[in-house]
UniProtKB/TrEMBL annotation:
<protein>
    <submittedName>
        <fullName>Uncharacterized protein</fullName>
    </submittedName>
</protein>
Amino acid sequence: YFMAVNDEKIAPLGSQDRRKNGSFYPPYISIAGNFPPASCIFSEVMNLAAFVGFIIAVLRYLQLKNRIDKPWLNFCCLVTFSIGCFGMTLVGNYQIFNKMTIHNAGTFMTFGLGTVFCWMQSYITLRVNLNNEGRNAGIIRFLLSGCITICMILYFSFMPQGFHVQATQCQWAMVMFFLIFLSTFAIEFRHSRFDAVCTHCGHPEPVRESL
């Protein structure tokens, strides 16, 4: 964002200024990451975010695997956010002005499925109630899920009407709420330990002696 503003590709967030020749674009996240060199950083950040998000989804799935009474719901959360993470890679690697269809599909996968994931995890948090912290964590997640949903509704309401300043503010706020939501998993993760075990399943090799 700061690089795109410095290069005069987008208008500052919250600014009504536009150049007469139209060289200033609204500060949508996708447009801020459309032009190099900002596009290079944007792609790298989105790929890393997709990887980290997928790891969080897997760890959360493993944490709830033997504790939830509805295994299918836990599995749906994993699949939903995994597809959303794949959408992040599409958003980062296919710039909106170059491949708009693929970019918009990735945006729908990221924000749409990401919102569904947030609501499902909020419900699961109250349902499982790990270490008797589910109520407090669940309330926080329900509030964040509501904020994300409201921002999304406002974003899709403002954008077709040409209220780009308000739409971009809702978009940036929605992303911040997403990041805060994911950070709340630290509440439960601090009670769990994840170990990676490597075992050799083949036949033991014969011992050879040399004279």
